[in-house]
Automatic annotation (TrEMBL):
Lineage: Eukaryota, Fungi, Dikarya, Ascomycota, Pezizomycotina
Species assigned in the record: Penicillium salamii
Protein name: Major facilitator superfamily (MFS) profile domain-containing protein
Molecular function via GO: carbohydrate:proton symporter activity
Keyword Acyltransferase in record: no
Location relative to the cell: Membrane
GO cellular component terms, A-Z: membrane
Domain Major facilitator superfamily (MFS) profile: 39-209
Membrane topology: Multi-pass membrane protein
């Protein structure tokens, strides 16, 4: 049976699980199932936000007003701009396993999202190098809490018939965020900045809200 299952497709309207054949559920006909899939979609989009945040620094470096505002960073300074988000992610990774076991998935998702909102808010209003770098650190800390927790929760709550597909899509949405970041940069390329804020990251904050 197992050998046959591995070399043949299941009949229409069915799927294999643990060597057994099950009928597929038409989730769009059930209000509760539609709600569940909506929540899963929200979890999938967390990786889109991750792709936006991680790709944004590349875009910012093409903006003349950003370069002028931070005095054309080069060398170690530019390296810190780019890597500090990963440093924040490493810090979050040290405590994440214990948070997941003690508080559960939802608390970790909410906590990570709040840290990300704080980081994006501070980054959007950055007035100097230290504030911008600190904001990126906070953003990275919250980002790792969310992007490591969301796939776990998707795996746990997704119906077996679509679990593999949904988890795979969640991993692939990173590039959609990077795509949005690139076009956001293009859209803000000619904006004239009159205040001491950074306009481009504020779009990320608006998207999260």
């Amino acid at each position: 049976m197992s050998e046959q299952m591995g070399t043949s497709k299941p009949p229409n309207g069915h799927f294999y699980l643990a060597g057994r054949l099950f009928p597929r559920v038409k989730w769009w006909r059930s209000p509760k199932m539609r709600t569940l899939y909506f929540y899963i979609l929200v979890l999938i989009l967390t990786n889109t936000a991750n792709g936006f945040d991680n790709s944004m620094m590349n875009g910012l470096q093409t903006l003349s007003y950003w370069q002028e505002y931070f005095d054309h960073p080069r060398g170690p300074t530019l390296g810190l701009f780019n890597c500090v988000m990963s440093v924040g992610a490493l810090a979050g990774l040290l405590i994440l396993p214990y948070m997941l076991d003690y508080w559960g998935r939802r608390i970790c998702l909410v906590t990570g999202s709040l840290f990300m909102l704080l980081g994006v808010g501070l980054q959007s209003g950055s007035v100097n190098f230290s504030m911008f770098v600190g904001a990126r650190f906070i953003l990275g800390f919250g980002d790792i809490l969310v992007i490591c927790t969301a796939p776990l929760l998707i795996t746990e709550i997704a119906p077996a018939q679509d679990r593999a597909i949904l988890v795979t899509i969640a991993g692939a949405t990173y590039h959609s965020g990077a795509f949005i970041a690139a076009w956001t940069t293009y859209g803000t390329l000619r904006i004239k900045v009159r205040s001491k804020g950074i306009i481009h990251p504020s779009i990320s904050l608006a998207a999260r809200n």
